User: Fold this.
Amino acid sequence: MNPLRVSILQTDIIWENKQDNLRRLREKLETLRGETEIVVLPETFSTGFSMNTEELAEPVTDTTITTLHQWAAEYQVAITGSYIACEDSPQAAGCSYYNRAFFLTPEGEAFYYDKRHLFRMGSETKHFTAGNRRAVISYRGWNILLLVCYDLRFPVWSRNVGNEYDLLIYVANWPVSRRKAWDVLLQARALENLCYVCGVNRIGMDNRQTPHSGGSVVYSPKGALLASVPDNEEGIATVTLELSELEEFRQKFPAWKDADEFAIVSDNSSR
Assistant:
């Protein structure tokens, strides 16, 4: 019943070089032709975690998303990750910039999520605008929630109310210095939300001299490690997820029925 093949792509990112990062992605997509249904990229896969928004930001109609749309159709896969986006904002009298996650299907559908929790310690709050809504994506019989990096630290934002989603995806540029939090919290999100969790992180040194070691993984709803890529290596891991097994587990262990009710009331985080 609705198995889903997911491939996690752990890569280095060439700093602020969209052309080379897109070229390298296409090479990897060639190796996955006919092998998978979703390809998951790191956060800001085409530029690195840069604050150079004025030069790097694009609308969804520009080169990066247009190219990914073409490749999703050509390779018959959904492609997800994040990039630096911009939109005209009358309130700001100019452009607003977003760390925007995307989910592009081979059928031409496009879903977007703007990162809610901006990483203030990296000055992201000074250069980007926070999103204020989650988007649950329906794809091939699955419901998928897409979140970005620092969102991982905030469990209320990922709470799976009434099993509204089956797969939770985090795309990230998570540094070596806080790697333990990445490892522990990804597994915790799977256990507490009774869902599959996929986390994809980059490797390599960025232009701020911040090292990244990867740790890209897929966990089962029971917290079992289903797939991983070795640390500090570029690589791809593909796993088949079973919706029937998830639904059977939720029926046998319906902890979701005992979850506390809550409401998000902050002006910047209402759903």
